[in-house]
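Incident review: delayed structure delivery

Summary: a single-chain prediction request sat in the queue longer than the usual turnaround. Root cause was a stuck worker, restarted by the on-call engineer. No data loss occurred. The affected request and its eventual output are reproduced below so the record is complete for anyone auditing the incident later.

Affected input:
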Amino acid sequence: MTELDFDQERLEELLLGAAGTEFSDENRSELNAILKRSASARAFAARHLILDATLSDYLLSESVERSYAEKQESALGKIIRFPFQRRTWVAAAAAIALIVFSFQVLQNEPLDPSSKNDPIAVVHNANFIVPYLPGETFDMGDWIRFDQGRMMVRFRSGAKLAVEGPAAFQIVSDNGAEMILGRATIRVPGKIKGFTLDTPSERVVDLGTSFGVEVERGGATSIAVFEGEIELQGAQYAAGPQTLLAGASVRVEGGGGNPLEIPYDVADYLNTWQASFGVEVVEGDLRVSDPTERGKPGLVVDPDHLLLFPEREFVPLSKEFRVNAIEPGKYANKGRSRRIKQTFALERALHVDSYLLQFSPGAGDSDRESRRFVGSLRFDRPIVGLLLSKELLDDSDELLGLSGSEFEGTFRRGINSEDSVVLDADRRSLSISFDTYQGIDQIRVLVASSVE
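Output delivered after worker restart:
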């Protein structure tokens, strides 16, 4: 890992003091100066805010046992090593939240591939088990190792590497890594190409794609291509590199040799697939669509779950773009909830990642009884808008939907009479309650892109 460019002990002292009434203007200026000049310091402070907010969410949640929150608090203490109690930190966090937020820390800091000052790679999200912090940066040659949990690293090129432990991998360039252990999803969105992943038995080069890789102890490597195509390179390919297309899966033993075709199965990669899209938590009657489903929203049938479909990424929107919801709160078509008949323009022009949330019971269910589905999810970036009406969904399909998506027959798009959506105050969490009867229910969630 890179060496810290700030005095961690002094920053902790200032953060703690910020909660008190005797925090001087001189100390406030010093705190601001540290946060302003050091991205690592901002990430350090922001990580603690996010961990505390996450812990509070779990303590208040009826769907998660208190024991889990206690484990998280224990892990929090081990990671931060703060010599003070959590309630003291909550006060300090509240006092500095606006300071940290003003610098747009963590995932919303831009990474410009043309800038030599930007880090080679940055941690984009990580669960509390992993000993790395969101916003933590890596240089060429740095190794990342952990025994359990998962994290996602974004490279300066824009490529995303989501890894599940036990794992060990090295940053070898701004568009490449070497993995000697672990299970990962690699996604190279947009026009980025050429990401290279070396394993003990294989070199994988993306040609504009997403794929999964599992490297076992001993070097045996399994590869599954989710989207697009990849190229396998190595001395064993006497006739030249071998190309694999979406839906193909191979395995190469630790000693090398020719790849052997194996059954295509995405089940083992679902955790890293989800993390690669910045979805940190999914609970209740909700799941993220798998790689075989992502490109077919409107056609995928699942009578037992709400499905979240990651759509297009880094889509530029003008500040005139209309949405049904911007502010935190409950949105529904009845009671005292905020109605969705009015629309709002975005507060500023920005880039977004789009997610389609859908329920589709399938054909032949027109006579089924009404059923309620309740779920929640949390992103690693702020939610900037919700599209909850059929009109706005229809108007945004061409811009935000994946190419080839089919939405004919989705006559119940948007929030219906018994549906509700709650955007939490943290702007990263969404709670959904759909009362389903027949047809396909859909809403669209817009999240700030990882790069702006």
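Verification: The chain has three domains: 8-103, 121-270, 278-448.
Action items: add queue-age alerting; document worker restart procedure.
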